[in-house]
Amino acid sequence: MDSVENPFVIGKVVGGGKFADRDNETLLLKRELDNNQNVIIISPRRYGKTSLILHALQEAGKEYVYVDCSLANDEAGLLEQMLNNFVGNQPLEKLAAAIRGCLKDLELTIEVNPAKIKVKNVGSAGFEEVVKYVSSKIVVLDEFQEVVRISENLPKRLRAVIQHQRKPFVFLGSKRHMMRELFQNPNSAFYNSGVVLNLGLIPPREFQPFITHWFKRTGVKLEDGDTQGILDFTHGHPYYTQYLCHFLWEKRRAHDKATVDQVVSFMVEANSSFYESAYSSLNPNQRKALAIVAREKNVFSKQAIKAGKMNATQNLQKALASLANKEIIDKNGHYHFNDLLFRKWMLDRTQPN
Ligand SMILES: Nc1ncnc2c1ncn2[C@@H]1O[C@H](COP(=O)(O)OP(=O)(O)O)[C@@H](O)[C@H]1O
Ligand SMILES: [Mg+2]
To answer: Which residues span the domain enclosing 307?
Structure first.
């Protein structure tokens, strides 16, 4: 019993049986990739974009190159990831031979321990060469909005190469505003360049059987109302559902009967120094706006503005924009906290009038 692993995975990409639902999305992605159609997945952070695309690619048995654009500081870094992930675990000699002769406008070195390609210099055509080279597989560009940070003209140059490739490209992004700007603004290089999937939460009715299955399978007993309590708190947010389940599983395994509410409070407490410092860095209007978002669905209603002691709609708008910019909140139909525990922390410390 002691050797049973906690089945609720947090902070890592989930796959196999540890992956819940997303049947329709998986089907759609597999179909579009079979059609060689580019796809774009947009959602706030931690909704499961990365897990979903890797799940769909594995189910479809497709070869792919995964690139996390947020890890690259410059063009060379981006190309380095593409090349290393393209060659995977092949032996070094094979890798060197494969690349030699294909890439002319690039200065590369090969490191031995661990085996890794290093991009030293990128000539004017180097970027295009590498993108073409790796696109014999499906290329997944995660946190794609970050390429703009690398260089403003990179999207345009990328678009120019990829429109001539046969295999599809997948773009994932967590900053909705920037992703929409890139893919849905008629003046943007990527306008109309693929099918857009706006990823939402996992419906609680789909999450519930997943939770009960994994408790049962690992021989850990749930108390009455546990799954309901978790899903009432998370509304099916993939990350926070796993997070809560993870800690509840530990409690239940130790025969601790703490309620879901108590487990939530414990987790809020554990993160409170982080919330304290985030909150103290906000100006007064931002703090008021955050308190309104914590309580109200319709933040612009007269009653919400009055209760929040905000003196003008304009100020509220400005404060919301800066909170979104700091990625504390996001707008998905209505404004909401990205971190559900931060919201709970706010609710606990700010009393309604
Ligand atoms: N379909 C899923 N089933 C179960 N848990 C999931 C699922 N999708 C995401 N998660 C949980 O959410 C976390 C964040 O997922 P991730 O794919 O990294 O999100 P994103 O790429 O949108 O930031 C994972 O570590 C996992 O705990
Ligand atoms: Mg991700």
So the answer is: 273-349
The sheet carrying 195-198 orders its strands as 64-68, 138-142, 169-173, 39-42, 195-198
Final residue of a domain: which of 198, 214, 237?
Answer: 198
User: Which residues form ligand 1's pocket by a CB distance below 6 Å?
Assistant: 9-14, 19-22, 43, 45-51, 238-239, 242
Is 10 a member of any domain?
Answer: no
Task: State in Å: Cα 49 to ligand 1 middle.
Answer: 7
| Residue 82: inside a domain | yes
Ligand nearest to the CA of 200: 1
With contact defined as beta carbons under 8 Å apart, do 271 and 279 qualify? no
pLDDT score for 206: 95
Q: Does residue 188 share a domain with residue 216? A: no
pLDDT of residue 106: 80
Last residue of a domain, one of 243, 270, 297: 270
| Mean pLDDT, the chain cut into blocks of 10 residues (353 residues total) | 83 86 96 96 94 95 96 93 86 72 78 80 86 94 94 91 94 91 91 93 96 97 96 96 97 96 96 97 96 94 87 92 93 90 93 59
Give DSSP secondary structure letters for 204-217. HHHHHHHHHHHHHH
Q: State which of 175, 197, 242 you would mutate to test the pocket of ligand 1, scoring each by most atoms of that ligand within 8 A of its C-beta.
A: 242
pTM of structure = 0.92
Q: What is the CATH number of the domain that holds 309?
A: 1.10.10
Atom number in ligand 1 closest to CA 20: 3
Helix H segments across the chain? 23-34, 49-60, 75-87, 92-99, 126-134, 147-150, 154-162, 176-184, 204-217, 226-234, 238-253, 260-270, 272-280, 284-295, 302-307, 313-325, 340-349
Which pLDDT value is given to residue 94?
72
Judgement on whether residues 33 and 163 belong to the same structural domain of the protein: yes
Calpha distance 224→227 (Å, rounded)? 8
